[in-house]
What we know:
The complex is a heterodimer. Chain A is α/β, with parallel strands linked by helices. Chain A has 3 domains: 42-288, NagB/RpiA/CoA transferase-like (Rossmann fold), CATH 3.40.50.10420; 297-383, Orthogonal Bundle (Fumarate Reductase Iron-sulfur Protein, Chain B, domain 2); 390-470, no CATH class. Chain A is 50% helix and 10% strand. In chain A, strand 5 and strand 6 form a beta hairpin. The longest helix of chain A has 23 residues, at 18-40. By secondary structure, chain B is α/β, with parallel strands linked by helices. Chain B folds into 2 domains: 2-115, no CATH class; 122-244, Rossmann fold (3-Layer(aba) Sandwich), CATH 3.40.50. Chain B has 13 helices and 8 strands. In chain B, helix 12 links the parallel strand 7 and strand 8. The radius of gyration of chain B is 18 Å and the shape is globular. The chains are: A alpha/beta, B alpha/beta. At the A-B interface, helix 1, helix 2, helix 15, helix 17 and helix 18 of A face helix 1, helix 2, strand 2, helix 3 and helix 4 of B.
Amino acid sequence: MSATVHHPEAAKEFVANSERMQWHDMALWFVRNKRDLQAAKTPEWEYLRELAAEIKAHTQANLDVYLEEFERQAAARGAVVHWAADAAEHNEIVLGILQKNGVQRIVKSKSMLTEECHLNPFLEAHGVEVIDSDLGERIIQMRNEPPSHIVLPAIHLKKEDVGNTFHQHLGIPPHISDPKVLTEVARGHLRRKFLDAQAGITGVNFAIAETGAVVVCTNEGNADLGASLPPIHIACMGIEKLIARQEDLGVFTRLLARSATGQPITTYTSHFQGPKPGGQFHIVLVDNGRTGIRDSDQFREALNCIRCGACMNTCPVYRRSGGHSYAAVVPGPIGSVLSPAADAKQHHSLPFACSLCGSCTDVCPVKIPLHHQLLAWRQEIARLGHLPASKRLSMKAASFLFSHPRLYSIVGSLGRLALRMTPRWLLYNRLNPWGIEREMPPAPRASFRKWYDRERARQNPLPVVSSSSQQNMETQP
Amino acid sequence: MRVGLFVPCYIDQLYPDVAISTLEVLEQFGVQVHFPNAQTCCGQPMANTGCADQAAPMARRMIEIFHSFDYVVCPSGSCTAMVTHHYGHFFHTKGRDAYEKLRKKTYEFTQFVAEFLRPERFDIPFPHRVGLHQSCHGLRELRLGQCSERMLETRDLAGELLSKVPGLTLVKPTRVDECCGFGGTFAVAEADVSVAMGQSRIEDHLQAGAEVVTAGDMSCLMHLQGLLERQKQPLRVMHLAQILAGRPKDINVSTRGSS
């Protein structure tokens, strides 16, 4: 397993490049804005969100039944359904299918699940050439980087960076940054890969129990080419992608396109049922920790996620720290909920990479209470003993202090006195993170309680008899 | 109507004038206000750090301290939301009824003023351009205003109150309800991101032409004030209660409290 991640340190470099950070912030805010415009144009928006959350809750409550129905229906239409308990099993299943058919070259459309299972390096280690066919994913694949966003995997890159990457990997002349030219270069490069591929892997946006169909949404049509040109199509999905009925799909496709990119409709919404004549169609159902989340009252709703990325676009922390600072398969608010579920120790800092502003919860199309789940994770992390000692001890001390009003009052007075008396050079140093770029708050001579005691307490006595511990004994410095 | 004034610890210690202003506004409307001085902190810093065991005694103290009042009013959306939205799990088994009573009678300051006192207008003019910072917990937990993410129309309580102050011009930043980046211990633990967030709020309000940024939460303003003073920017921070109480007589008087 990878090393423990400390988000504040991982974010440092991204934040330090102020110009780029602000560009990233505004690029994602632009997408959030487009989403707002589309949502505002949909009078039933909040009703759709509610409905989507309820459909997901119902499906998860009956997941066993619907999964088996899905398998029956899919198999009846000629698909081969595989069950994988974890990432390793998923990877073995996919490799098995490829090896059995002598496949050495595949194209793969965007799939956060295969990213989660680290399928690419696994297949490559077994001699299979994997080409990511989503443009953003292909760019970061060339650069050997993970995606920094689940819908916009190369959002951390500017067009000049893409030009440089294509110069290095595709041999185009240097310093080309015209998006039209770069797109044509990518198109030419990918077309050859599509034609050469012996199998296509796709992700799955939705799977429908009553029809056994899987639904894949892309704007580039790359999943359709990858699923249609080669004879073998392997669709890999987490078991939470399931919905019960075909007629409910529209609730989700409407929410997805608008939430993800502010489009009224996704360019390609393709339904796959059964193999093409003479071909093979495999569906791999993956658990990899999902039943654990489903069993948790605290975090169950996280499985509602339709991977639209709206919580990333709206998150003020994500926009300013960049997706890579999370060092997780899924970054941003939903990632900070899912990652600790996979490994709480490694990802312990992620639920704290959040100001608890709650924007993610309100933007989420399937009503995952994201910021409350992040708060719940903080408790879990403390309970599991992954909280740094500094935090643990300071909170113990604070709790003691706040339980003793007299002591609180004395310490408050002394603290303010110290704040007034301490020379700047001693007050502002590396051990005071508040003061690196901010002035300390004011330190008035009297607290409010002191003022109240002096000005009001006597003519305005408390309606109840105070116990001795409630007497104010503040000392005047 | 007997109101217990619930003063957040940092306001008590660092911004006494915010609590005095709150008290004065309530008294102007004939409300009898008391400050029970056994109160300290609502426990939010501990709870938000994940230390529920350390926050729980704070929650229990709050119930004891305020049980005899008809209402509890607090000049902070965040601390109010802690009591009304995040205490539930401390009283799952014991003290549920007592907590329910506290929850139902606890109000954030603007909420209480708008709901019970319903002022026609305020007397003392504030002839300045004011940017309203919508503090997140007031907005997205207490729903004191229109959240830009939600497609449900909601009354903007702070905006309504400010529109009743003579001479005050409300200016609008482009991102109407983006977080300032304070976030409690987040401001220190994630200082770089926190500062970057605060910086962009300041620029937005300056662009909008604000002379003063106001909010229902002094904690957000403490963070922005720290940045503004370091950079010597021509923008002041004032809590909503301070504007409604007619402060300051002279805008150039320091907002650094009474000393």
